[in-house]
Amino acid sequence: MDKVYDHKKVEDNIYKKWEEGGYFKPEVNPDGQPYSIILPPPNANAPLHFGHAMYVIEDILIRYHRMKGFAALWLPGADHAGFETQFVYEKHLAAEGKSRFDFDRDTLFKDIWEFVHNNRGGMENQLKKLGFSLDWSRLKFTMDEDIVKIVHSNFKKLYDDELIYRAKRLVNYCTFDGTSFSDLEVIHEERVSPLYYIKYGPLVLATTRPETKFGDTAVAVNPKDERYKKYVGQELEIETVLGKAKIKVVADEMVDPEFGTGVVKITPAHDFNDFEVAKRHNLPMKQVIGFDGKMNEHAGEFAGLYVKQARKAVVEKMQEKGLVEKIDENYVNRVGLCYKCKNILEPLPLEQWFVKMEPLAKPAIEAVKNPSASSGHIKIHPKSFEKLYFQFLENIRDWNISRQVVWGIRIPAWRCLDCISRHSGDDPPIGGVDARIKEGSWTSSPRFDGVEAGQDDRSSWIVTEGTAPEKCSKCNSNNLVQDTDTFDTWFSSSQWPFATLQTTQNEKLKTENDFERFYPTTVMETGYDILRWWVARMVMMGIYATGKVPFENIVLHGLVNDPLGKKMSKSKGNVVNPLALADEYGADAVRFSLVYGTALGNDQILSYPKLEASRRFTNKLWNMARFIEMKGVELSQKGHPEPVSVSNKIPDQVRNDGSRGSHEVRSDAVIARSETTWQSFETLTIEQLSNFATNPTDKEWILKVSNLVSEVTKNMETYQFNQVSEKLYEFVWHQFADIYIEDVKTRIDENSFTVLNSLFLILNSLLHPMMPFVTEEINSKLGGLRQLIVSQWPE
RNA sequence: GGAUCUAUAGCUCAGUUGGUUAGAGCGUUGCAUUGACAUUGCAAAGGUCAGUGGUUCGAGUCCACUUAGAUCCACCA
Fold it and tell me: Closest by alpha carbon to A560, among A543, A578, A544?
């Protein structure tokens, strides 16, 4: 053995052997109880970031259960990450001086598909580098045909159950990226927005958005406000920048008399609160900002200006006409931003598909609250995250699932152009979404503008399970057009646990899919930051689609921040590539340092000293093995028959199956149970070893190891991986090496040597889930009979 | 505005249901050592466990409040 452990010589070969041996498949333990984890699918096109290294927790669970004899399935997948990916691709296009508008829809889609597929191998290789024992034969992609089919059919099911509706509502719309978002995706930030006090006839009101005044359809005051009582219900004639206008005064509780002057302009098309007020008072909606971010024809002379320009121009004009009473330049408010391009989102009225969440949330709450819930019970670890889960589900809002991007699963909904034109009496407006888009290019689609705000527009749509309908069911016309929108990525990933299992092959059952055997899955492990985005939605969709919870346990880890404690992000440029660290310190050290010293669910700071300490630990372990191997050789040279490795030193009578270990058997480590030496020496029961030992100190250490095995096993079962790693680190190094080996060194004989070797291999096995490479290599150097990955967990 | 989390050694963090003298890594100081260990071993210094009050035979751990930091939700015209 080399003097220093060199992970670079070892890791790739070992991973290859595991993979070739088929050890990642649950079928290695054909009769085992099913244990399954679905990998949270990383973005197919982006390289792994440090958060992904936390998959180590899943690998630990899988390896531990595999060693325990479970049929352990860890199913890998990749997410198409719709908007994210299109955003990246558009940047890539921009670098070539092009934009998405240079392509038709099909070409753009095909190009992105290719782009993503060219990047995909990278992500998979990175996962392999970190040693993750994923069953690659079951790899899935969210855009796989069979997955898409399932997503489509569940959309149809939701639609038929009236849990999906189409409505014109205000959405958060990014006029730069050309798509809407769900509430969750909006980030809020404080900005200085001057507050303008504007004269509206006899009234003065305060607003940060004077440019939207052309869309005002009322002004509102608080019903209890004595100052304005006389105006309520009146129609005021006011002077505006575009001449005289009439405006209605309504009373609404929404108005805070303390703010500004206690008078609010109501712009239903461009403000969420105003939209609600408008619904209550039956006010008309007047859109004055287009989807291109420019003022439209209702803005008179300001038409064609971008919002920011228009604000300036409108204020100047108002000042000329003496309509501005004062301006509070330092006013700070919070604005919604696009999480991708950081531009201010515009609330705009748009027809979108929404999911009614309340009926879905109820059983999801029940599944966690009630241990005997009919859909099955889910436990959340650590338990404290239950509060967040309930808080989200109990206050849930309907989910906008349509996105105006091309890279995604297209919504299987069609409408009949003939029916629409008969209904509205006009040709449907074409290309209303984005005036920048030329007619005939990919986003220009018929958008029926005759829908009342908030109303479900079910009548004109035909929803299918994906196949295009041949003709309109009402008028038999074949003049049908599919919705151009695609699903929010999270809509497909919310179906991931069952969709994957319904589409992967089960070798054990000789059936088409794994669903029967592995659903509900055992554990969903992910960062707590996507508990609401993803985990809760999976619970809802899982229960809805299958009647069963998608997983029995939710295990949540914290975030890994940069060495200074700041959140890693591309824009800050402080992202650390886990692969670079694996290259430098070894995958085992990276893995170990991620679970050592951090309790589950807590954030951690990426620590180079900790990585170095972990690397030294792998080296320590390696040198302990080297010492034992050396002693074995010394003993054999002193005339003992064949004690090169301990497997030859185990007396036949203590071996359960009576077989004699040999390097030949080990190196092939066959899986078929019939021909294994399953009870090989490294998994002798403690009792057998204790009976075998003659020296009383050796017996003491056997007991110590035995106690450690039970403690560590208990910690494994309760997701206390920090305890597992800390206890093993302390014991292996500062007890076993510093005290026991130092002691046994001076009195080594054949019997003690066997005990030493056996105990060390037990410790080595305990470390395997966390540090799979070095332990596997050591196991083979010291004559383990099977590959460690498929050896039995010590007990 | 509502909620959650965190506060332990110089730094980064453990401390499982309350139970002797509160631990680790890194750093610091001293000694030893090329021995299985591009090192390792032995030893030392370093903590009123954020503060106040309470429950208890006993509190880092449970409760209340205070302070500081972080995060999330709602969103301000």
Answer: A578
- C-alpha distances in Å from residue A567, one per residue of A50, A85, A420, A491, A604: 11, 22, 50, 27, 10
Read off φ and ψ for residue A547, nearest 5 degrees: 80, -10
**Residue A489 Cα distances to A97, A209, A244, angstroms:** 28, 33, 48
> Does ipTM come in above 0.95?
no
Condensed to tens digits (0 to 9), the pLDDT of residues A598-621 reads: 889 988 988 888 999 999 999 999
Nucleotides of B under 7 A from a protein CB: 3-6, 12-16, 23-27, 36-42, 71-77
- Name the nucleotide with the smallest C1'–CA separation from A261: B77
**Rounded CA separation A226/A468 (Å):** 60
Which nt has its C1' nearest the CA of A611?
A: B25
Separation of A747 CA and B67 C1' (Å): 60
CA closest to C1' of B13 belongs to A597
Distance A230 CA to B61 C1' (A): 63
Give the predicted TM-score (pTM) of the model.
0.88
Closest CA to A285 of A455, A453, A454, A457: A453
Which residue has the least CA–C1' distance to nucleotide B74? Answer: A395
| pLDDT band with cut points at 50, 70 and 90 for residue A283 | confident
B33 C1' to A738 CA distance, Å: 14
The dihedrals phi and psi of A78, each to the nearest 5 degrees, come to -135, 145
Q: Using an 8 Å Cβ cutoff, are A364 and A554 in contact?
A: no
Q: How far is the CA of A390 from the C1' of B54 (A)?
A: 31
Q: Which nucleotide is nearest to A718 (CA to C1')?
A: B16
- Distance in Å, residue A358 CA to nucleotide B71 C1': 26
Residue A548 pLDDT: 96
End-to-end CA separation in angstroms for chain A: 29
Q: pLDDT tens-digit profile of A193-238?
A: 899 999 988 889 999 999 999 989 899 999 888 898 899 888 888 8
